[in-house]
Amino acid sequence: MQVRAEQITKTYPHANAPVVALSPISLTVAEGEFLIITGASGSGKSTLLKILGGLLAPSAGKVWVGKQEITHLTDTALTLFRRKSIGFIFQDFNLLPVLTALENVAFGLQLQDLPTRQAKEKARFWLAEVGLAGKEKSLPAQLSGGQQQRVAIARALAMCPQVLIADEPTSSLDAQNALQIAEILQKLQRETQTTLVMATHDTRLYPFADRLLELGEG
Ligand SMILES: Nc1ncnc2c1ncn2[C@@H]1O[C@H](COP(=O)(O)OP(=O)(O)OP(=O)(O)O)[C@@H](O)[C@H]1O
Ligand SMILES: [Mg+2]
């Protein structure tokens, strides 16, 4: 799916003066493209990703994900659309600590009404895809940071999102794990034609992207 933003802005209310997090920006991410968004801390990368993924409403402007214009959807319609089409990977993994790796991946599928057995089969497949065969029964606390992030990637990919949004997915990982995560994401993006938008400060990841976009101040 293509992702397109037209003249979006974001201003956060603040006690004295409103904070301009994003000045008007327009961009198009082609279907199957891997775009990396860079820029200094506070330049609005996370704000932009949240708006593109429908987690945050822009102050102005419009966003299309595929043919759907998402900024005027009701909350319920937006939640359903997001669940069906958009995957998120965050810096801090967001795994459920009491669930095993397999259960963490299967959980979202079960919420989508997939019967437990099929959800677990699918979860097993995606854990193997990210190199975690044999770790199905491990709890997050029993896995390394890199392995936990791979569980989070498997969880996102198991939903077969057409758009995958990743906010600093490697920033809590060491160099070797960071490169491995980038390789996995690039491989899957190429194989499945997923549109991948990633914010990162890590220059070593730049070569994996098809295109680089640098956000300026505000
Ligand atoms: N919920 C919020 N309320 C008020 N201001 C916010 C909020 N979220 C972000 N901001 C402000 O908006 C600006 C952009 O923040 P954002 O998190 O998008 O930057 P970023 O590029 O992701 O930074 P980093 O690299 O540190 O993650 C910053 O000035 C920040 O302080
Ligand atoms: Mg950020």
CATH-scheme architecture: 3-Layer(aba) Sandwich
What string gives the helices and strands in order? Answer: EEEHEEHEHHHEHEE
Which spans have pLDDT < 50 for at least 5 consecutive residues?
Answer: none
Question: Could you name the CATH class?
Answer: Alpha Beta
Largest sheet geometry:
5 strands, parallel
Question: What's the helix count?
Answer: 6
Class inferred from helices and paired strands: alpha/beta
Can you describe this structure?
The protein contains six helices and nine strands, in the order E-E-E-H-E-E-H-E-H-H-H-E-H-E-E. It has 218 residues and is an alpha/beta fold. It has one domain: Rossmann fold (3-Layer(aba) Sandwich). The protein has a five-stranded parallel β-sheet, sandwiched between helices. Strand 1 (3-12) and strand 2 (19-29) form a beta hairpin. The longest helix is centred in the last third of the chain and has 18 residues, at 175-192. It starts with a strand and ends with a strand. Bound molecules: adenosine-5'-triphosphate and magnesium ion. Residues 12, 19, 21, 39, 41-47 line the site of adenosine-5'-triphosphate (ATP).
Q: Which features characterize this protein?
A:
binds magnesium ion, alpha/beta, single chain, 5-stranded parallel sheet, Rossmann fold, 6 helices, 218 residues, binds adenosine-5'-triphosphate
Brief sketch in words of this structure:
This protein is an alpha/beta fold. The protein is built from 6 helices and 9 strands, in the order βββαββαβαααβαββ. It has a single domain (3-214), classed as Rossmann fold.
